[in-house]
Amino acid sequence: MSDINLDLVGNPVIKAFIQDQAKFPENFKLNICEDDEMYLFSLNNVKDDRDRALVRYYSIGRRILDTVKQVVEWHFGSFENVPSFLDFACGYGRFTRFVIQEMSQEQIWVSDIYANAVKFQTEYLGVNGIVSTGEPENYLIDRKFDCILANSFFSHMPERTFTSWLQNLYDLLTPNGILMFSVHDECLRAANTEMPTKGILFSPKSESQSLDKEEYGTTYVTEKFVRECVEKVSGGKAFVHRLKKGICRFQDLYVVTNELVRDFSELKFHHHPEGYIDVAAFTNKENLYLEGWVADVNSGGRVEELQVLVNGEVVQRCEPFYDRPDVAGYFENDGALQSGWRCYLPKNTVALQDVLIVKAINNYGLEWILETCTVKSLVNQRQSQSLLGSTQTKLKLLETQLASAKIEWEQSQSELMITQTKLEETQTELVLAQMQLEQTQNQLVSVQMQLDKTENQLINLKQKLEQANSRVLAMESSKFWKIRSAWFQVRRSLGLAGE
C-alpha cells in the first residue's frame, strides 16, 4: 500500500478540520493514496497548495455523505439499518472514509476499475473490495446489496454502456433496496452545443489521466432519457426520483427503488449553504477584519449563523445583514440578496499561526466550510484579491454577467431586427405615399390649369357681356330706339301688340 501525506496526523490545519467535521475524529482515516485522482485534481485546482487541496478533498467527501445520508435516512431510518452498502466507482475512498464512521466496515463493499484503489481501501479502510471491469457484461457479482451508490460514474459513460451498467447495478439490488446514481443534466452542457434527440450527449473529455476518453468521457443527459432507461432496465417495475443538483449543487442525483416503503414526498432534501471570504486583513489596531458572503438557496432556507473558530474554539458569531446584488445575480435568487457579512476578531484572540475555521450553518443543520487554514495563509491570500473575492468567484460572477449581457444583446438584436423590418415597411409606405403625393400634385397642377383657363374664359365672357350691355344702353338711348318704343306703345293702345 502506497500513501502520501503521512504527516497529516501532525498537520494542524487538517487536524482542526477533521476535529470539526468528522463524527469520530479520533478514529478518522486521514491518509490518501498517491494515485488518488480526486486529490490530484483538487491539488491542481488550487495551484499546488497542499493544505487547501486536502481541505477541499475532505470537504467534498463530507458533502457527499450529507447528501447520501438524507436519502438513507428517508428509506432506512439510518445507516445503522442498512444491511449492505456498495460504493460503485468508489475511487480511493474520498467518500468511503466518512461512511465507515456511520456503519460497520464489514457491511461496506467498494468497487472500482482501478485495482490499486480497491486494494488501498480494503487494506487501509478495512472494507470489502470488488475490482470492476471495463465492459459491463464482464462484471459478474454473486451477491446483492441493499444500498448502492454510483457517484460521478454515469456522468462519464457513453450511450453504448450507459444502459448496460445501469442494468447491472439495478440487478444487484435486493427487493427493498435503493440505487443512487448521479448524472450531468443537459443544463450543464455548453450553451452552443445541441442536445441529440435521444437525450444523451457524450464528449471524450474527463479529469482521468489514464482511462480511455472514448470509454470514460463527459456525458450529459435529459431527465426523460434517464427515466426511460430506468423503465427499460426494471421492466417498468421501479420508482425513480430526481434530486436536482443533489451532489454538491452540481450533478443530479437519481434515486431508484422497487418498493416505496416511504413516499418520495417524504424525502425532504436540502442543499448546503454556500459562502466565501472576500477580505481578511489586520487593521491598524491589529484586529483581524473578515468580510464576505453566505447564502442559502433552499426553499424556506436561511443561514442561521456564521461561526469563526480559532484552534477549534468558537470566538465569533454573526449573521448576513447587508445586500450583495452580485451574489443574488450569481444564484439568480432574490433570497440571496441579503448575504453580506463582516466581523472583527480582537488582536488578543488570534495570531498568525492559529488555525481559522469559518463556516456557515443553515436552518437544516447543514454546514459549509468557507475556509480552513492558518490566519497567515488566509491574510496573505486575500491581500492580492479585491472585494469580489477569488479569481474563480470573479470568473463565475463575470460568466453570469456575460450570460446576462448576451441575453440582453440577443434581445436587442431581435428588437433591432423587428425595428429594421418596421423601418423598411415604413420606408416602402413612405415611397408609395410620395408617389401618391406626386400624382396628386400633378392632378392639382392640371386642375389649376383648368381653373386658370376657366377663369380666363369667364373674364372674356364678362368683357363680352359688358360690351353687350354697353351696346344695349347705347341702343336704348338712340333716336331709333325711342321711336321703336313709341310705336310699340301705340300698338298696345290699339290692342295690336302681341305677347
Describe what this molecule looks like in 3D.
The protein is of the alpha/beta class and 499 residues long. The N and C termini lie far apart (152 Å). Helix 1 (12-21) runs parallel beside helix 3 (50-75) and helix 2 crosses helix 3. It is elongated and about 165 Å long. The chain has helices at residues 12-21, 37-45, 50-75, 96-99, 115-125, 159-171, 223-234, 325-331, 375-383, 391-476, 479-493, and strands at residues 3-4, 32-33, 85-88, 108-112, 128-131, 145-150, 173-185, 200-203, 218-221, 239-247, 251-257, 274-282, 288-295, 303-310, 313-318, 322-323, 338-345, 355-362, 367-374.
Secondary-structure element string: EHEHHEHEHEEHEEEHEEEEEEEHEEEHHH
Number of strands: 19
Binned strand content: 15-25%
**Separate helix tally:** 11
Query: What structural class results from the helix and strand content?
Result: alpha/beta
Low-confidence stretches: 386-391
Any idea what the shape is? elongated
Helix content: 40-55%
